[in-house]
Structure of HDOD domain-containing protein:
Amino acid sequence: MNKLAETVQAQLLAAIDNDDLVLPTLPEVALSIREAAEDSEISVLDLSKVIGRDAALSARLIKVVNSPLLRAAAEVTDLHTAITRLGINYSCNLAIGLVIEQIFHARAPAVEHKLRDIWVNSMEVAGISYEVCRRYTQLKPDQATLGGLVHQIGALPVLIYAQEHNELLSDPVCLHYVIEQIQPVLGDKILSAWEFPEQLVKLPGQVQDLDRQTSQVDYIDVVQIARCISQRGRSRPLAALPAYRHLGLPFGTELDINELLDARTMLR
């Protein structure tokens, strides 16, 4: 670790410990969707009205429904049908994840470019997480999708910090190192502050631990596997991961990597 990275890391960790680092807030529309999701009696019509307040979000949901992985014989052209097709729970979790995309923006072009790269990767991991979860576990694919979308959320405060510190912004290697070191603890703090589900709130802090052990498969396992598939050729072999073994696949069974890789485009 070079001197700059060491200094920046120390400053950020001190700011975290002292609660001096400003964390991003969950957009208001996401709060409204989550509140709606907590109503067990909510109808598709009522949820359509909540999500429909954001035209861009509505368009994204319809686009997802019409993606190759989810597309039916007839194209979906309205929000009500899209929510009916996805289901209320999946629509809510997916919508919250897509709303978070709105905060992946910055003033500095270099930071904006990095944020875009992170978001594109997060969407890839989310798409693969959905398919891994649906095919190989009894967990909820909508939760896995949301986990994939937010697993790098801790990078946001680091990049916003970099906007105000040109020496960090001008050193891409140092910036990447600091993000990798700091984002896990920041990600947990953000999701905790946003009151995310217990199964996801520790995901950013644990998903990079490839030796992580649990008694049964969970959403962190699913996102971890999805990350490794997304980074194919740049990570440890899947069969060597405890997360892979947690899937409990019959001996000799392998994941259909090519089809899972196709799922990367589901959210684009």
